[in-house]
Task: inverse folding
């Protein structure tokens, strides 16, 4: 598959521990959620241009299965830094957590992902709905170390329940060319 864009090399040490919680907000403005559910990201395909830009190459075995191999010393060193419990090629997990804040007229949204390698870019949107009203929280960006989280406060102007879901199609481009899609984590208030 041809890359639509080329991004700069983002070879940094992968941070393999990701905790997405409401700790960034003061306890006076947000109640922490009871649980944080991690939903698997699913592998979609390899982007050969991104892999090449970051020192990897995509190879195909006799059965037609693709994998990404490090070629440069920098890419080999990056893969060597991974935990022995990390399997390169698995995509990781995504989270979404929400809580009422601001006198219940606002919703605090916290989301993120954990992948086995640094990323060069991610396209990430959280969709919120309440009745016929909807809000989209765009959080595109990168590069990341492989562990990323972000939060936003959305004004809803009342205390009715709000449902949230990471939009289908939200994904991250890993430095080895893997493209990993969110598994639609969801939450509510």
Result:
């Amino acid at each position: 598959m041809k890359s639509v864009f080329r991004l700069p090399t983002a070879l940094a040490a992968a941070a393999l521990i990701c905790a997405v919680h409401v700790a960034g907000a003061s306890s006076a403005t947000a109640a922490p959620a009871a649980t944080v559910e991690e939903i698997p990201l699913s592998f979609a395909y390899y982007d050969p241009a991104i892999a090449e830009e970051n020192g990897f190459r995509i190879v195909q075995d006799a059965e037609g299965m693709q994998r990404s191999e490090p070629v440069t010393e920098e890419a080999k060193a990056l893969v060597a830094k991974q935990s022995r419990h990390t399997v390169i090629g698995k995509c990781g997990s995504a989270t979404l957590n929400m809580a009422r804040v601001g006198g219940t007229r606002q919703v605090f949204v916290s989301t993120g992902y954990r992948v086995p390698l640094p990323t060069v870019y991610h396209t990430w949107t959280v969709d919120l709905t309440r009745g016929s009203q909807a809000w989209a929280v765009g959080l595109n960006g990168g590069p990341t170390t492989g562990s990323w989280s972000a939060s936003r406060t959305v004004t809803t102007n009342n205390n009715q329940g709000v449902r949230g879901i990471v939009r289908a199609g939200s994904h991250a481009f890993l430095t080895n060319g893997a493209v990993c899609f969110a598994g639609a984590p969801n939450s509510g208030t």
Observations:
- The longest helix spans residues 73-80.
- The chain has one domain: 36-188.
- The longest strand covers residues 93-101.
- The two ends are 40 Å apart (CA to CA).
